[in-house]
Design a protein that fits this description.
The protein has one domain: 3-Layer(aba) Sandwich (Rossmann fold), CATH 3.40.50. A five-stranded parallel β-sheet has the order 2-1-3-4-5, sandwiched between helices. It is built from five helices and five strands. The chain is α/β, with parallel strands linked by helices.
Length: 142
């Protein structure tokens, strides 16, 4: 899913994503994206602008999307330099951000990166849960 308020940028991103082989669902803002995320639609990745009108920015959307769909990989994008985002407290540790304007190769690389990170986190959580169950079984009932 691509979330971008600028119609020109959204159209460009949709074209780039489709040329990479992705089926794309587009949303114009955070509220539109949440409505689509609540639907029973298959979504592999959330690709969202950080600064958007309408009361829900990209960070908030990412948090809400992960509440609806735990483990959903998120790639954020911004026209602001990463240094500017960090200076104004708008850059979160561990976030993967693609700065605009980006090339198709940059988009493809960042998409692979968010999917890889998401898969590693899912695997790590599954392993932690398995270890917790094993420890609990060894300790027996309380």
């Amino acid at each position: 899913m691509i979330v971008e308020d600028d119609p020109f940028v959204r159209s460009y991103a949709v074209m780039r994503l489709e040329s990479l082989g992705y089926a794309v669902i587009a949303a114009v803002d955070g509220a539109d994206a949440l409505q689509k995320l609540r639907a029973d639609t298959h979504i592999d990745i959330l690709f969202t602008d950080i600064v958007m009108p309408g009361g829900i920015n990209g960070w908030e959307l990412a948090d809400l999307a992960r509440q609806l769909r735990p483990g959903l990989p998120v790639l954020l994008t911004s026209g602001y330099a990463l240094e500017t985002l960090a200076k104004h407290g708008r850059l979160r540790a561990g976030a993967i951000v693609l700065t605009k304007s980006y090339r198709k190769a940059d988009l493809a690389r960042r998409l692979r990166e968010v999917v890889s990170v998401s898969q590693l986190l899912s695997r790590s959580l599954a392993e932690t849960a398995a270890v917790s169950v094993t420890v609990a079984e060894r300790q027996g009932p309380s």
